[in-house]
């Protein structure tokens, strides 16, 4: 298949997507309807609303096309698969920073990682960093806060 993907997929990801496509091409038409596509997306770990699905379909189709062949399905899924891998890497990074494994990154954790990176920071710097990363403002840096911060535009 010619590579028109904006993001490179691993061989394992390509096979996972092919398997999902074939499993949910319920009428063996060589294309996925919106319903079949939603089932395929869920099977590879992407819960999606109907509105999100149609928005996603429009990223790879022209006009009112609502059925996708394998190539367009892979083109649509490549960025989502890359994001999924990115989230897994961020989760591992969070666990490394969370030295006491309590599910939160503390000011002490931030100070320790900054020292490892060779950065000398003041108490005020630590408070500023923690406030910036604590996206929900509850006083704790959770995994969700960390991921939201890391995915936010700079």
Short characterization:
This protein has seven helices and two strands, in the order H-E-H-H-E-H-H-H-H. The radius of gyration is 20 Å and the shape is elongated.
Please tell me about this protein's structure.
The protein is mainly α and 154 residues long. The chain folds into two domains: 11-84, Orthogonal Bundle (Recoverin, domain 1), CATH 1.10.238; 98-151, Orthogonal Bundle (Recoverin, domain 1). It has helices spanning 11-24, 34-43, 50-58, 70-97, 107-116, 123-133, 143-151; strands spanning 31-32, 68-69. It has a two-stranded antiparallel sheet. The longest helix is centred in the middle third of the chain and has 28 residues, at 70-97. It is elongated, with a radius of gyration of 20 Å. Mean pLDDT is 82; it is low at 1-6. Keywords: Calcium, Repeat. GO terms for molecular function: calcium ion binding.
């Amino acid at each position: 298949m010619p590579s028109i993907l904006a993001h490179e997929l691993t061989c394992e990801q390509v096979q996972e997507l092919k398997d999902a496509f074939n499993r949910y091409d319920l009428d063996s038409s060589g294309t996925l309807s919106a319903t079949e596509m939603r089932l395929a997306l869920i099977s590879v770990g992407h819960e999606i609303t109907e509105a999100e699905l149609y928005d996603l379909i429009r990223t790879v189709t022209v006009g009112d096309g609502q059925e996708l062949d394998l190539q367009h399905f892979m083109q649509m899924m490549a960025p989502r698969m890359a994001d999924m891998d990115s989230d897994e890497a961020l989760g591992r990074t969070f666990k490394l920073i969370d030295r006491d494994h309590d599910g939160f990154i503390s000011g002490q954790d931030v100070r320790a990682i900054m020292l490892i990176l060779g950065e000398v920071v003041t108490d005020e710097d630590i408070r500023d960093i923690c406030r910036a990363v604590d996206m929900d403002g509850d006083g704790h840096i959770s995994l969700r806060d960390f991921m939201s911060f890391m995915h936010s535009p700079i």
